[in-house]
Specification:
124 residues
């Protein structure tokens, strides 16, 4: 059974930094592209970041480029999202995801596995 468990969400002020983590189990971590999506209240879920199995390829959504950084640790099967210079519009539930196909993250469809999400709130 595949499990993706996010942690590290919380409430911060605009301009602050925050890191969220995703612990994966039940899958061969080194085979999967890992990534993050987010969904703000009343909005559709949007792509945030993805990282390939060997970390050689990363991709970011336009709204977070230059501020957010995705990484992964194969020894602990954990994926991280470092969020800097946070803005109120970054407020959302952040979901960890896993898939064998990197392109599925960019298309936003067909992603195989999802976590339950962690809430990040940024106040002005």
């Amino acid at each position: 059974q595949v499990r993706l468990v996010e942690s590290g969400g919380g409430s911060v002020q605009a301009g602050d930094s925050l890191s969220v983590s995703c612990a994966a189990s039940g899958l061969t971590f080194s085979d999967y592209t890992m990534g993050w999506f987010r969904q703000a209240p009343g909005r559709v879920r949007k792509f945030v970041a993805a990282i390939s199995p060997n970390s050689s390829t990363v991709s970011y959504g336009d709204s977070v480029k230059g501020r957010f950084y995705v990484s992964r640790d194969i020894t602990s099967s954990t994926t991280y999202l470092q969020m800097n210079s946070l803005k109120p519009e970054d407020t959302a539930t952040y979901y960890c995801a896993a898939d064998l196909v990197f392109g599925d993250f960019l298309r936003g469809t067909g992603v195989s596995y999802w976590g339950k999400g962690t809430l990040v709130t940024v106040s002005s």
